[in-house]
Design brief:
Elements: H1 3-15, E1 23-28, E2 31-36, E3 43-45, E4 53-57, H2 59-67, H3 72-77, E5 82-85, H4 87-92, H5 94-97
Parallel strand pairs: 1-4
Antiparallel strand pairs: 1-2, 2-3, 4-5
């Protein structure tokens, strides 16, 4: 799955979730997915803005998380996923990648 497919999937799932009340960012290598949940609905873009929570990983790890082949907690503990900012918001992001 390429980045455009990932972006499309996250966008589709974000539309079905209640707004988070904060900005959340995925950094997948050189690509960015920004989810702005501060308004009436979650808006997904590729803007590189400040976020309350930033999750950094690579595309391969992201796909393993999405498919369920990799446990999110193990990914963080092994250093494959790095979280900066609000951990509570990071937990909400699981619903966007499943």
């Amino acid at each position: 799955m390429n980045f455009e497919s990932i972006l499309s999937a996250v966008n589709a799932q974000a539309e079905n979730l209640a707004p988070f009340g904060a900005k959340l960012k995925f950094v997948l290598g050189d690509d960015i997915i920004m989810i702005d949940g501060t308004g009436d609905k979650n808006l997904v873009s590729q803007k590189d803005e400040e976020a309350a929570c930033t999750i950094s990983t690579d595309t391969d790890t992201f796909m393993k998380l999405k498919s369920g082949d990799l446990n999110p907690m193990m990914a963080v503990m092994s250093g494959k996923v790095k979280i900066k900012g609000d951990m509570g918001l990071a937990m909400k992001l699981q619903s966007l990648i499943q």
